[in-house]
Amino acid sequence: MGSCRPRNYARRISSSRSVVEHIDLYGELNAPMRGVTTVAFNTTGEHLMSGADEQQIMLWDWAPKKLISSYPSGHSDAILQAKFVPFSNDRLIVTSSADHQVRLIHARESGSAANMELSKHHGCVNGLAVVPCYPHVFYSCGVDSYVHRHDLRVGSTSKILRCVSIITKLGVRLFSIDIDPRNPHYFSIGGDDPFARVYDIRKFGTSTNQRSPAYMFCPRVMASFAYPYITALAYSRKSELLVSYNDDSIHLFRNNSGPCLSPDDEQVYVGHRNSRTIKGVGFFGPDDEYIVSGSDCGRVFLWMKKSGEIVRAVVGDVETVKQAVGHPSIPVLATCGMESSAKIWGPTSNSKAPMPEPLANDDELDVEDPYEGYQDSDSS
């Protein structure tokens, strides 16, 4: 290792392309559930949380593939998102659901848990975002076009924003929200138009209808159209904004230059399918060197962030991979899809793992809107 410090050496190994090219299935976390809808590592990466259609939250010791606890969420429909509350010793978990609710789970040392409703949107709640340095504050967004701010210290929830399309002037159904980790005053939202909006909460006034974005990102070719729309977005550690579009590509925006960026300002990632469900997108590697996303062809894709080259693709589900999240410190992935188990991936292959063969459903994908028929309650 020479003069390289052990910690730096470990980071270099974790980000190595050869390590990523050896990623393969490590194991499955099986539970008697119909479908796993969301997965999330805790801060240390020791434990993994999964949510399911049956409204249960599972806590796993993922390395030995052992179920630690199972908590009822109190939801009456499928859990769509679940997040650990920072600095809560994994005792507090916030969840959102297709039943329109945002709820809090308080896990006790005895193994039991209490849950309570925090707020209710008018429609599915796809987006949750916790604030790393403010452990009692988090945000939710839903298909009712609203962003809610929750403060666990005082038990309050407020509607801070209604997102309105600059093209149609109607409410934008929101599918994703994330906080800038370098500047937590900024958050970004995405929904059923092509614009990723970045807001500075310090500049908010009194009216939820009169809050303008600090920045807007959109690929030049999409700026004058209502579709494709955004299904997911995520910030890197360097404040880069990653945006995934329905029936289109993934785009990385590197600076705050305005609504229509030149080709030099964005990187594009192609090859996956994103048309059937609302699925996540994110970064992978100790310094976010890779991009990761599930696909409607049943694969998990990993791209080089700088070049956009696909470096690994694995078959992760018989139908759709909804979410793929990276471990906070080592080259391990957790994924979930239509199957009843969460899957763990790591560099387990003894040789460079081959790319998977084309799947039967590659050419049989039907484009559908998961919220077709939903009416914006405030658009009339």
UniProtKB/TrEMBL annotation:
Coiled coil: none
InterPro entries xrefs: DCAF8, WD40/YVTN_repeat-like_dom_sf, WD40_repeat_dom_sf, WD40_rpt
SUPFAM superfamilies: WD40 repeat-like
Compositional bias per record (Acidic residues), positions renumbered to this chain: 360-371
WD repeats: 29-70
SMART domains: WD40
Keyword field contains Cell wall biogenesis/degradation: no
Listed Gene3D superfamilies: YVTN repeat-like/Quinoprotein amine dehydrogenase
Cellular-component GO terms for this entry: Cul4-RING E3 ubiquitin ligase complex; cytoplasm
Disordered, as annotated region: 345-380
The keyword Repeat appears for this protein: yes
Keyword entries, A-Z: Repeat, WD repeat
Signal peptide: none
Protein name: Transducin/WD40 repeat-like superfamily protein
Naturally occurring in which organism (per UniProt): Striga hermonthica
